[in-house]
Design a protein that fits this description.
- The chain is of the alpha/beta class.
- It has 3 domains: 179 residues, inorganic pyrophosphatase (n-terminal core); 116 residues, Diaminopimelate Epimerase, Chain A, domain 1, CATH 3.10.310.30; 118 residues, CBS-domain (Roll).
- The strands form 4 sheets. A 6-stranded mixed sheet has the order 6-7-8-9-11-10, sandwiched between helices. Strands 2-1-3-4-5 form a 5-stranded parallel sheet.
- α3 packs across α5.
């Protein structure tokens, strides 16, 4: 079984790329994340009979032997695809226009800096002489138009323009595009815009005129990016970062928009565990104080690699460890007695792996409890130096979905940093 999927909060480029891939690979099942951008959701509500899509809950992931990923290159931004992450024997094909290194190790990939991922797939459709219906051509053109700002964004290439022209030749409907590419703007958006303008504080960071605005919201609000862009245009600054926190849900959405070549908004958002383009990006954080998020953004713009608070200030020590020859039964007792969820594996003073409660899922027989840790431990261990900042630690944890980082100096483990330690810093800003 082969499936095609894309990133959470799917936009038209992601959706169009999924549909294009199903045309390129007959029999591939289109699997969309649960959350879609409002414009995409509106489009599907009308045209769902023409575009057969599923969610991860609708398919048997155990039967998947080919995974096609489009418009994203990070496991953390996929919806409920973790069961496929470490599966052996699965073929992964990747199509993306975000050129930064991601966490998905593909069997085959096409990653090029064009304006939209859809453009790369249209190239293949042209090459293979695939036939498109007018509605398919319309959707694919929507994907290109959205990510290139109707071919006006600086990221637009000649290939995007050629792909758009080819789709117009296949009867893509510009009237439909103009309907669904209009930004959603409600009374609630107006209220948030007024609040952001009223509380706007401009500052200059590394020569860039920046506005970082913190807004408390309740519940989900669609299309906040529209508001952030309007703030940028009204204030005429180089970049705006909206920090939208929901105290009840314990989460924080960060949306950035820029209009200068010297500041890569997408790179800043990627450092925070999100993604985007040089002039647009977003990230979603949990249990983080808005003030800490603002500090994080400022440090990232500054390019600061150091912080007044370092990992050595937050880490726990001394560190409990086991050896690679320790039995899984003994490890289970250590984890239980110390009330921890994971522990470094150290041989001759050097870290060789990590073992966590999660790894015990592979211990299906009681007899395996007598096996040494080395048979079940994770050998690719992420570590951090004691002089690094909490911001850098958080970025690693978010990107790789790990809950603890051994602190290593001169090749030896001197401490352990947990997700709780980092989040405590972010929430309280500074330790006592």
């Amino acid at each position: 079984m082969q499936i095609v999927t894309t990133h959470k909060n799917t936009d038209f480029d992601g959706f169009a790329s999924v549909i294009a891939a199903t045309i390129l690979f007959p029999g591939a099942v289109a699997v969309l994340p649960k959350n879609l951008n409002p414009n995409v959701k509106a489009f599907l509500s009308i045209h769902k009979e023409l575009f057969l899509t599923h969610t991860a809950a609708d398919v048997n992931l155990k039967a998947v032997d080919r995974l096609i990923v489009v418009d994203v290159n990070s496991w953390s931004r996929l919806d409920r695809m973790d069961p496929l992450k470490n599966r052996s024997g699965i073929e992964i094909l990747l199509w993306d226009h975000h050129i930064e290194q991601g966490s998905i190790q593909a069997s085959s990939s096409c990653i090029e800096p064009v304006g939209a991922t859809t453009t790369l797939l249209v190239r293949e459709l042209k090459k293979m002489r695939k036939l498109l219906t007018p509605m398919q051509a319309t959707l694919l053109l929507a994907g290109i138009y959205e990510d290139t700002g109707n071919l006006t964004f600086p990221s637009t290439t000649s290939e995007d323009a050629h792909a758009a022209g080819w789709l117009l030749e296949r009867k893509a409907d510009l009237v439909i595009l103009s309907t669904f590419l209009k930004p959603v703007y409600s009374e609630r958006h107006k209220a948030i815009l007024f609040q952001m303008l009223q509380n706007a504080e401009r500052s200059k960071i590394k020569g860039h005129r920046i506005c970082i605005n913190k807004v408390s919201i309740t519940g989900h609000v669609d299309s906040l990016a529209v508001v952030v862009r309007m703030v940028m245009e009204i204030l005429n600054v180089d970049a705006v970062f909206g920090i939208f926190s929901d105290p009840e849900q314990g989460r924080c959405m960060v949306i950035g928009r820029g209009q200068t070549d010297g500041l890569d908004v997408g790179a800043i958002m990627r450092s925070m565990g999100g993604g985007g383009h040089p002039r647009a990006g977003s990230a979603q954080l949990k249990a983080v104080h808005p003030e800490a998020v603002e500090q994080w953004i400022r440090e990232l713009i500054q390019g600061n690699q150091q912080s007044s608070v370092q990992i050595s200030d937050l880490m726990s020590f001394p560190v409990s460890t086991v050896t690679s020859q320790t039995t899984m039964e003994a490890v289970a007792m250590v984890l239980r007695d110390k009330g921890i969820t994971g522990i470094p594996v150290v041989d001759d003073g050097r870290i060789v792996g990590m073992i966590s409660r999660r790894d015990f899922r592979r211990v299906r027989k009681d007899s395996k409890l007598k096996s040494p840790v080395k048979a079940f431990m994770s050998k690719e261990v992420l570590t951090i130096a004691p002089g690094k900042s909490p911001m850098q630690a958080a970025a690693i944890m978010v990107k790789h979905d790990v809950g603890r980082l051994p602190v290593v100096e001169n090749g030896r483990v001197i401490g352990i940093l947990t997700r709780s330690d980092v989040m405590r810093f972010f929430y309280d800003l500074l330790p006592d």
